[in-house]
């Protein structure tokens, strides 16, 4: 007899959805990096202010958010229908659609398509999903070199580094570091390169221009795909994406299945929400849209790879599925007090910050990213900033509950934490036990020095490492009340 | 009015002066305060750490104890938020729709202290006197779960003798986050360091807020540094008068 074990999650051993260390361990290293702290604090503060200013301009911002949420809810509820409509429209316009159940399948499809062209180099539009599946590594394994063309992705690639932000992958680097990377890694760089932004941009421009003109294959992700017309949409700031989307003979687009939207008119909502939330601009500089192929204009061959890689598993969780609403704006990263101090690498996934903490564990299965749902103080700033109203704090709590339940099922003896939580619940379920525990807790007064407690045993030592705790008072509130009022709940007389 | 106090487990056990101040304040304003002695904890720590099954009996207890009360006051934005936004959810997760409905009803009569004063009792000047330099930290859950807005500040501005100074980056979390402060102690401390920097920049003698938990965090850090700035709950400031503190 076979048992249905749930929808498959993203496979292990490929791609970048899992970190090597749990979040609290990885975070400690990041917290000690003073340059990183300073870069992040400056960059996120600037972008927060820009976003706040352009959001405040729109009198109907809350209605736009609600509309974005409603469109995503509707689309996900009818995802099968819209994906098939998208496939038939893309096919009707001369494109070819491929379905990939996971990272391995997608990598195999894309590698095969590139190999068929005979190309050994490809140019890439900034795309998180191709990083999610580890496409560059897969291509390299087949002898194909992938050139990142987004300026920040180029910095990350040349620096043999990992992206640390959804929108600004090199947010952890400053211009002095970028100059060093260019001087060390760019074969065609001017040795007199300075670290002024204009000089750095010019160096990248010259370097990339040669790649664009030589490239025969371009690879992109997609911000949106319109089912009604089969139109793909990429929004960007630099125009380098436009080069990759229009110059090569062959264009291969990899997109997560949740990126489909029903109709053209839905773009009206998202093209207002996305630039204001991500770069703090009213409109992004470049919006490229295409349907299939157009003879004599742009690529002659177009392939669309529709990727699942754990998304159907997320969709199967009625509470968790709203994480699939995400339009990758990164507003939640920029307002997150945890992200601002740790940066993206600590999350171990291409999806960092609050949205990553709810998306990555759903794509991989909670057990493979078990520390991420706890990487938040539940302050709620992310929910307020989210342009499609993803209730990230509630999702974090939901995933913590899933983790606790799964961990309890997986072990015969409860963890120390689970035992403590069960004991606390048992105590607090009864006022008599609770009052007795309060009296017992007063023995903690023995630890006090000058009215405060400065040391506690593990795990509470994590508190007293940096913070005092007031000593328990001689009389609890309920003892005071009883002293004043006796057994009565009400005030006397 | 007859107002039932849900003192919260933290104030009950560690900060009884917060409960006492709430009673003193409301009685001074001419109201009758009751303390249902069968109360314990709202279950927020369990819920937010993922132990929903363990939170369920605490949700049930809160509903049982406060169901017959017309008006409930809580000197905590966070615990009010848990009652209002989590109790029904916890009940539903275990299929107890009846408890979820009852929890929703009780939650609708549960108010955080500044909400009760401004919205229900219609008072901003509570006749308090507090001759100190004070800065106010709006805690995350009162700000973003309850949307108390500037209610606490409206109350504080009417306090006689107070020197109220604005806290820079006030809306940023102090890093407490319940068990987050233990599980992610290093990140929590990094957030606390920035919050303390903001508090100390104001030159205030006192940092106040509507949550004992956040104040325990900020105060724990300031105490460790012997910084000379104390943390005092909003209820204590509003309860202070010229006669006695």
Radius of gyration of chain A: 26 Å
Give helix and strand order of chain B, one letter per element, not per position: EHHEHHEHHHEHEHHEHHEHEH
Instruction: Tell me the fraction of residues in β-strands of chain A, as a range.
Output: 5-15%
Tally of extended strands of chain A? 13
Query: How many helical stretches of chain B?
Result: 14
Greatest interface by residues involved: A-B, 69 and 77 residues
Overall geometric form of chain A: globular
Question: What's the average pLDDT of chain B?
Answer: 97
Give a nutshell description of this structure.
By secondary structure, chain A is α/β, with parallel strands linked by helices.
Q: Your description of this structure?
A:
The complex is a heterodimer of chains A (about 500) and B (about 240). Chain A has about 500 residues and is of the alpha/beta class. Chain A contains 22 helices and 13 strands. In chain A, the strands form three sheets. Chain A has a six-stranded parallel beta sheet with strand order 1-10-7-4-2-3, with helices on both faces. In chain A, a hairpin with a 2-residue loop joins strand 11 (about 450) and strand 12 (about 450-455). Chain B has about 240 residues and is α/β, with parallel strands linked by helices. In chain B, about 50% of the residues lie in helices and about 10% in strands. Chain B is built from 14 helices and eight strands. In chain B, the strands form two sheets. Chain B has a four-stranded parallel beta sheet, sandwiched between helices. A four-stranded parallel beta sheet of chain B has the order 6-5-7-8, with helices on both faces. The model of chain B has no long low-confidence stretch (mean pLDDT about 95). At the A-B interface, helix 1, helix 15, helix 17, helix 18 and helix 19 of A face helix 1, helix 2, strand 2, helix 3 and helix 4 of B.
């Amino acid at each position: 007899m076979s048992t249905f074990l749930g929808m498959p999650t993203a496979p292990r051993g490929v791609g970048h959805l899992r970190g090597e260390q749990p979040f609290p361990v990885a975070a400690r290293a990041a917290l000690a990096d003073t340059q990183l702290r300073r870069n992040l604090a400056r960059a996120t503060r600037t972008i927060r202010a820009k976003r706040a200013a352009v959001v405040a301009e729109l009198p109907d911002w809350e209605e736009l958010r609600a509309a974005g949420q409603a469109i995503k809810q509707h689309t996900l509820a009818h995802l099968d229908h819209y994906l098939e409509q998208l496939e038939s429209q893309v096919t009707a316009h001369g494109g070819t659609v491929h379905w990939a159940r996971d990272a391995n399948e997608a990598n195999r499809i894309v590698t095969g398509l590139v190999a068929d062209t005979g190309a050994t180099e490809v140019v890439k539009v900034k795309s998180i999903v191709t990083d999610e599946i580890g496409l560059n590594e897969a291509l390299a394994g087949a002898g194909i070199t992938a050139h990142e063309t987004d300026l920040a992705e180029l910095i990350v690639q040349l620096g043999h580094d990992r992206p640390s932000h959804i929108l600004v992958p090199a947010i952890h680097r400053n211009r002095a570091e970028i100059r060093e990377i260019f001087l060390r890694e760019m074969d065609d760089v001017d040795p007199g390169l300075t670290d002024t932004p204009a000089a750095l941009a010019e160096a990248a421009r010259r370097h990339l221009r040669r790649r664009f003109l030589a490239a025969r294959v371009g690879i992109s992700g997609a911000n949106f795909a319109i089912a009604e017309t089969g139109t793909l949409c990429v929004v960007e700031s630099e125009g380098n994406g436009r080069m990759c989307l229009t110059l090569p003979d062959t264009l291969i687009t990899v997109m997560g299945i949740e990126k489909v939207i029903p109709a053209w008119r839905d773009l009206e909502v998202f093209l207002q929400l996305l630039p204001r939330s991500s770069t703090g601009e009213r409109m992004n500089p470049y919006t490229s849209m295409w349907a299939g192929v157009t003879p004599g204009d742009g690529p002659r061959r177009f392939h669309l790879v529709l990727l699942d890689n754990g998304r159907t598993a997320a969709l199967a969780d009625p509470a968790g599925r709203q994480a699939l609403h995400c339009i990758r704006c990164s507003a939640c990263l920029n307002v997150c007090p945890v992200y601002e101090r740790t940066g993206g690498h600590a999350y171990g996934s291409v999806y960092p910050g609050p949205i990553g903490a709810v998306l990555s564990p759903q794509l991989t299965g909670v057990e493979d990213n078990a520390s991420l749902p706890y990487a938040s103080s539940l302050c709620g700033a992310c929910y307020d900033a989210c342009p499609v109203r993803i209730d990230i704090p509630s999702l974090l709590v939901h995933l913590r509950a899933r983790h606790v339940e799964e961990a309890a099922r997986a072990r015969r003896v409860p963890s120390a934490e689970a035992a403590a939580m069960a004991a606390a619940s048992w105590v607090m379920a009864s006022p008599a036990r609770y009052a007795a525990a309060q009296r017992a807790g007063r023995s903690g007064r023995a630890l006090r020095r000058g009215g405060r407690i400065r040391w506690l045993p593990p795990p509470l030592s994590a508190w007293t490492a940096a913070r005092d705790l007031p000593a328990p008072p001689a009389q609890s509130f309920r003892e005071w009340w009883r002293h004043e009022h006796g057994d009565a709940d009400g005030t006397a007389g | 009015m007859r107002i039932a106090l849900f003192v919260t487990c933290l104030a009950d056990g560690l900060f009884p002066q917060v409960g006492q101040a709430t009673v003193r304040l409301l009685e001074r304003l001419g109201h009758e305060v009751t303390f249902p002695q069968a109360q314990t904890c709202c279950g927020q720590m369990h819920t937010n750490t993922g132990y929903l099954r363990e939170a369920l009996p605490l949700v049930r207890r809160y509903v049982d104890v406060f169901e017959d009360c017309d008006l409930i006051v809580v000197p905590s934005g966070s615990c009010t938020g848990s009652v209002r936004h989590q109790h029904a959810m916890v009940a539903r997760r275990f299929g107890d729709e009846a408890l979820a409905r009852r929890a929703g009803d009780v939650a609708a009569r549960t108010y955080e202290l500044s909400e009760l004063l401004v919205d229900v009792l219609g008072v901003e000047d509570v006749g308090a006197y507090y001759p100190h330099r004070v800065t106010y930290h709006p805690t995350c859950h009162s700000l973003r779960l309850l949307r108390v807005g500037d209610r606490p500040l409206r109350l504080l501005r009417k306090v006689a003798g107070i020197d109220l100074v604005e806290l820079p980056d006030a809306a940023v979390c102090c890093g407490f986050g319940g068990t987050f402060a233990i599980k992610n102690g290093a990140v929590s401390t990094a957030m606390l360091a920035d919050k303390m920097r903001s508090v100390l920049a104001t030159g205030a003698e006192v940092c106040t807020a509507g949550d004992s938990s956040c104040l325990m965090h900020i105060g724990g850090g300031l105490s460790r540094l012997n910084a000379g700035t104390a943390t005092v709950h909003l209820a204590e400031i509003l309860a202070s008068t010229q006669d006695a503190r």
